[in-house]
Structure formats: C-alpha cells, structure tokens
Amino acid sequence: MQKYVSLALLAVALVFTTAGCSSVMRNASLAVHYTDTGVNELDDYPVLRATGYAVLSKQKGATMAEKQINAMRASKMEAYRELTEQLVGVYVKAHNRNTNNIEREDRLVTEVEGLVHGARVVRQYPLGDTYCTELELDTKQIYDLYQIRGAL
Q: What domain of life (predicted)?
C-alpha cells in the first residue's frame, strides 16, 4: 500500500511539473504552501484534459448499434490511456540493430501503466466515422482524495 501511495504522490508531483500535449492548465500561478505532513499544497491546481478516438466502422459487431457501443468503450479507454500518460509518463524502450552501417532492425515499444482517480467524462459524441470521448481530471480532487484517506 505504501508503494502505491508513494507512486501516487510521485504522479501528482509529475502532474504539477509537466504538461502533456493534451493537458490544459488553468491559473498558471503555482505558489507552494507546506502542510503539517510536509506535502506541498498549491494555490491553484491544473485541470488535465484528454480525448480518445475510435473508428466506428473498424469495430466488431453485427449491427451499427453494437459497433457504436464498442467504439464508445474503445474511445473512453483511449482517453484514459492519454490521461495516464500525462499523470505517470510513458515508458519507452527502443532497439536498433545495425550491421556494416546498414539498419537491420528498428523496434520501439511504449508502455503506460497507472491508476487514475477522479476523472470524469465531459462528452462522448460521434464525429463522422469516429467516436470521441473527452475526459477531465481536476488535480485538486486527487489531492483531496489522498487527504481524506490519510495518505498525505
């Protein structure tokens, strides 16, 4: 449990120090105050946003309604993946093999793993042959959740 709390605190710290391509910060003033526990408390907390997309026609399903439901789920999962990238970061592993200065093999693996608390679906809608899901995460809610649990 302590490991997860430490990882979550690290993730919150990363949120405040980095901004992903889909993130939006409100009130960029990030004045820091220290609490009794020594954890930084900010005046303003960023609100992160992520959008996930899924192609309707590529989904499995016998009917268009089934494909739409699957696209809704897929786009939501994609949005959560994007939020996780912003919170935790992306593990990147690259492998390149050359022989006599000729590239023989080039592999790139990316991995995202994390826990997202407090995100909410802002909108889900079709856009042509694509289904979109927009998520929002107020990082103040993360801070409050950990305070309620006594983790901070």
A: Bacteria
DSSP summary character for residue 128: T
CA distance linking residue 150 with residue 146, whole number of Å: 6
Strand residue runs (E) in the chain: 32-34, 40-42, 47-55, 91-99, 102-111, 120-127, 130-138
Which stretches of the chain score pLDDT less than 70? 1-41, 151-152
Length of the chain, in residues: 152
> What pLDDT score was predicted for residue 143?
80
**pTM score, whole prediction:** 0.65
Ramachandran angles phi, psi of 141, nearest 5° = -65, -35
> Is-contact 49 22, C-beta < 8 A?
yes
Cα distances (angstroms) measured from residue 38 to each of 35, 53, 78, 81, 151: 5, 40, 35, 31, 12
Instruction: Give how far Cα 93 sits from Cα of 51, 64, 79, 115, Å.
Output: 25, 38, 22, 21
Q: Give the per-residue pLDDT at 3.
A: 45
Backbone angles phi, psi at 114, to 5 degrees: 180, 175
Which pLDDT score is estimated for 152? 57
* CA dihedral over 114, 118, 124, 127, signed as positive or negative: negative
